[in-house]
Amino acid sequence: MDRQPIIEFQDFSFQYYSQSEPTLHNINLKIHRGEKVLIVGPSGSGKSTLGHCLNGLIPFSYKGEIHGSLKIDGLETRDQDIFNLSKMIGTVLQDADGQFVGLTVGEDVAFALENDNIPNAEMHERVKKVAEMVDMERQLKSSPYELSGGQKQRTSLAGVMIDDVDILLFDEPLANLDPATGKTAIEIIDAVHADSHKTIIIIEHRLEDVLHRSVDRIIMINDGRIIADMNPHELVSSTILVENGIREPLYVTALKYAGVKVTSEMQPGHITTLKTELSRNALATWYYAIQADNRENTNPSILKMENISFSYDGVRQILDDINFDIRKGEMVSIVGKNGAGKSTLAKLLCGFEKEDRGAILYKGENIRSKTIKERAEIIGLVMQNPNQMISKPMIYDEIALGLRLRNISEEQIAERVEKVLKICGLAPFKSWPISALSYGQKKRVTIASILVLDPQILILDEPTAGQDYRHYTEIMEFLVEINKLGVTIIMITHDMHLMLEYTPRAIVLAGGRKIADAAASVVLTDSRVIEEANLKLTSLFNLARMAGIKDGTQFVQGFIDYERRIKNR
Amino acid sequence: MNAKIKLFSYNTLDTPIHRLSGLTKLVCFLLLTFAVMFSYDIRVILAVMVFSIVVLRVSKIQYSQIRLMILYVLIFVITNAVISFFFSPEQGVKIYGTRHDIANLYGGYKLTWEQIFYQVTKFFKYFSVIPLGIIFLLTTNPSEFASSLNGIGVNYKAAFAVALTLRYFPDIQRDYHDISQAQQARGLELSHKAKFADRFKNSLLIVIPLIFSSLDRVELISNAMDLRGFAKGKTRTWYTSKKLTRADYLALGISALILFATVYVSVFINRSRFYNPFI
Prior knowledge:
The structure holds two protein chains of two kinds.
Chain A: E1 7-16, E2 24-31, E3 36-40, H1 47-55, H2 57-60, E4 64-72, E5 75-76, H3 82-88, E6 89-92, H4 105-115, H5 120-133, H6 149-161, E7 167-171, H7 179-196, E8 199-203, H8 207-210, E9 217-222, E10 225-230, H9 232-236, H10 240-243, H11 250-257, H12 280-289, E11 301-310, E12 319-327, E13 331-335, H13 342-350, E14 357-362, E15 365-366, H14 372-376, E16 379-382, H15 395-404, H16 410-423, H17 439-451, E17 457-461, H18 469-484, E18 488-492, H19 496-502, E19 505-510, E20 513-519, H20 520-523, H21 527-532, H22 539-546, H23 552-566
Parallel strand pairs in A: 3-8, 3-9, 6-7, 7-8, 13-18, 13-19, 16-17, 17-18
Antiparallel strand pairs in A: 1-2, 1-4, 4-5, 9-10, 11-12, 11-14, 14-15, 19-20
Helix pairs in contact in A: 4-5, 4-6, 5-6, 6-7, 15-16, 15-17, 22-23
Chain B: H1 16-19, H2 22-38, H3 42-58, H4 63-87, H5 91-96, E1 101-104, E2 110-112, H6 113-139, H7 142-151, H8 156-185, H9 196-227, H10 246-270
Antiparallel strand pairs in B: 1-2
């Protein structure tokens, strides 16, 4: 290996013109040819800014002041334009959907060649070759709508590899992917690294998921500074993760609960490398000490689906004979891969679409004849992206909107809005414009704007998508508070941590049918359900097996209950 | 989203028309449109219209796909006819040089056979462009459309912008649908029950979130395009551009012939752009 680094930051600082403080401070970092490096950090830590400096979006699209030096392959980047940089470093952005430029796979892969004026015949040949490298040669004519999440990732990858770049930069490759697809994405990146020996940089906050395969180094960034630069085993066994708001792998948390001192000698970086010899006894003792809670909800039924079937076109069944019964005050997650029928289920509940067969019962009463507006007073829906809901410039007006549209008197509105503002912790921001809020606070505003209608049931679509651990915890603890007030909560989600930690019950859909309706610990340890619903076996189950504990499901449930007790929920 | 609502969206089928290159279809569209725009001979216009309806059938476009578009054009053309009658009721007489009165209308307006003939001709003139436009729009995929625009000399950035708009049309439609439903749940009234001013205000409640969520999309796609070298050169090539085949030359030949015939009829038979049955 040559010792000339392919990427070298020297006392590098960057400040956006729009901000009063630098986002990156005195970064010193060397990355060598062929290395595979993971950059982690919470939201706002500067990790994405670092990525933008590498690929040239800074200063090309985002302007600001640069100090110090950043060299790629010996060339100072500030003297290069984004087009030259794109020949050295290829970027795969998060959200494979949004970056799909072409109308078909072939066209999308060819995009960079088109811009280079490569003749049509040569272009087709090169596209075919690259598509073969990522196993997409048979889908060249498919449109993005026909592809699975994993195939979209492969397409994006092919689109940057076609230039034969030396460095591949992945900016949050796991955002918006379901657990199984995320796992595949990491495997694809690993395979490309093994085959091509390209330098690989992954920016991501979902540490455990990236560590499904090995990386050479992990660089931790927070507040615009490099906090740590070490190998996975050292980092995972240190306290740096917890201190900087990154979730440590679940199996490490379990080891700590069991009183095991996690050291780098145990090789805890990956569950597959973990040496459990020394911790077996501690785990077994802990396992027998924790007993699963028996907290069955005995409240009366609040929402029931009976034999619900639905189809948009009369040909393809989107939902097929769905039955479930949710009790008052429950917190339930609905999971399944894209296209399994989750969103349609929510639409039926809100009355946006009408079921073809079956009945939806609210407290035992069929609500088929209720209009969308009437249903909203019992079942509220919070959409995934707050920007899809916010339509007023001021917080107060946004929350009051639903009441004003119902012609309620201003005095009453003021009273109800105040109350909701207080519940949602937004009281200090009452007269603020929404544009001044962070993403998480905006999310709260949208939840508040639904809560003000006083619904008994709240449906949330991917409430934690794209959030780092701290924001995830904030949003979820907030929902727990609302749940304690008696609101039944249904969440549509891909997030396995959310299922495990917050919803005692998960309903799993696949191909429009319900394939499981059980505790999260059961669902996430059942290989058949995991396979069908694009989930992933939880590492806690692996840990139990490695430690010789027979009933892995019971171990997972014990872990959940233990955690709930110490967090006092 | 309801799969039935698919306005303006390209459909993938395999017909002789779909197989033609986008450039061919664009040029043929321009040639034929020019022909009907040039001529005021109702025989020629009807002939082109019949021809384009036949082509419409060949490309297997369903009536349900184009109903809305036809309705809008119909409203436009009828409004146009009424207004042009009120502003120049004597246009027909002026053009054809004769006067055959039918009736006296209010306020000194006279209805003449010349005027009726002139306006009917004009009606079909506009209306015959529709099938041509529909064929072009619905059988050309957006990228091919862009490459063909670029092929006839339109700046490629502008051409690509058009393609991207068409490409994202279904996504934006779906967003609109979702946002509208969520806002209706909050109590938004979109039906005719609401007053006009309220309906206008209410539509803002959908449009504002739509704009903001679309801006997120725009930032992402423009970054993705920058990172892959869009707009670095004065020209670019197109993955979807097809080599012209014999069918393409045939289509171009037929269209050119129709244009030629139209001009020929005007110059040598009618000796004017108008066909005059009155003398």
